[in-house]
Amino acid sequence: MVNRRDQAIILLGHGSRVPEAGRNMEKIAAGLRSKYGYKIVEVCYMSRLGPHFPETIARCAEMGATDIMVIPYFLHDGLHLILDIPEMMQEIAADYPHVKLVLGRNLGFDEVLVDLVERRIEESSGFADVRELVLEPRENYPVPEGQCVFVPMKPEDAARFLGEEADEVAEGGIKQ
Questions:
Q1: What is the pLDDT of residues 59-79, one digit of tens each?
Q2: Residue 29 and residue 26: Cα distance in Å, rounded?
Q3: What are the residue numbers of the active site?
Q4: 49: number of CA atoms within 13 Å, CB side?
Q5: Does residue 36 fall inside a structural domain?
């Protein structure tokens, strides 16, 4: 078992452009500190509003962590878990040769989730029909500066677009 004084736990979420979207993950981090005695528990996000992984791992290392475990705050075993997160971690690990960097298990399935979902069903049973919801304008949640807008397109359209863009960049037509 690792000495918890030298260990940092990073809860890694997807990220959102909605301020305070990660407030519940912050509560989990606080609970890990108070209930289980972890000294360093940080939260960060892959994209959108920060903090982001590079600055969070730097902060943990500055606090003296020599063992950092990243727990992906994800339920499903999608592409982020299979490739994106491990690639991101491998890339940054080169900057911290003195730190053991471990990709822990994501939240995934646990029997306690069955009870949690049942609780949410009960809590939601009196809610109004979705057609009655009043939604805020999407413009209230701008894409953070320096980040990209995600545009849904079919893979063949994306390949065609990227091919054309690559040709234009080679000809000096598109500046990024």
A1: 999 999 999 999 999 999 999
A2: 5
A3: 14
A4: 10
A5: yes
